[in-house]
């Protein structure tokens, strides 16, 4: 992921944050900027959790980075909903 640079982080983070917000049903509450932030922070969270599990995350490729960001974004959104006590409206 480091080879992509800041533009790559923004694109991958934005997509992962947007898809994660769709999965967690928080998309109506978020804009594009918050989706990017959630995706990038989710990527950091996902990478940290995978390193704790001894998964080699460096050099794993673009798709692995995307799915790491997506999983981290979903975990982050779940934790935010848990702390704030917000329920999703269907």
Describe it for me?
- With 90 residues, this protein is mainly alpha-helical.
- The chain has one domain (2-81).
- Helices cover 70% and strands 0% of the residues.
- It contains 3 helices and no strands.
- The protein has helices at residues 5-23, 32-52, 62-84.
- Helix 1 (5-23) packs across helix 2.
- The longest helix is centred in the last third of the chain and has 23 residues, at 62-84.
- The model has no long low-confidence stretch (mean pLDDT 81).
- This is GlsB/YeaQ/YmgE family stress response membrane protein.
- Its main location: membrane.
- Keywords: Cell membrane, Membrane, Transmembrane, Transmembrane helix.
- It is found in: Cell membrane.
- The chain crosses the membrane at residues 6-24, 31-50, 62-84.
Mean pLDDT: 81
CA-based gyration radius: 13 Å
Percent helix, as a range, is over 70%
Structural class: mainly alpha
Shape: globular
Q: List low-confidence stretches.
A: none
Keywords: Cell membrane, Membrane, Transmembrane, Transmembrane helix
InterPro entries: Transgly_assoc (IPR007341)
Membrane topology: Multi-pass membrane protein
Family: Belongs to the UPF0410 family.
Please tag this protein with its features.
single chain, cell membrane, GlsB/YeaQ/YmgE family stress response membrane protein, mainly alpha, globular, 3 helices, 90 residues, Transgly_assoc
In a nutshell, what does this entry contain?
The protein has 90 residues and is mostly helical.
Helices, strands, pairings?
Layout: H1 5-23, H2 32-52, H3 62-84
Helix pairs in contact: 1-2, 1-3, 2-3
């Amino acid at each position: 992921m480091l080879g992509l640079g800041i533009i790559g982080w923004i694109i991958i983070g934005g997509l992962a944050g947007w898809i994660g917000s769709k999965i967690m049903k928080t998309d109506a509450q978020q804009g594009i900027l918050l989706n990017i932030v959630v995706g990038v922070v989710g990527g950091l969270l996902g990478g940290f959790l995978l390193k704790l599990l001894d998964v080699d995350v460096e050099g794993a490729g673009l798709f692995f980075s995307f799915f790491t960001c997506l999983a981290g974004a979903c975990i982050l959104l779940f934790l935010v909903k848990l702390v704030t006590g917000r329920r999703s409206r269907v």
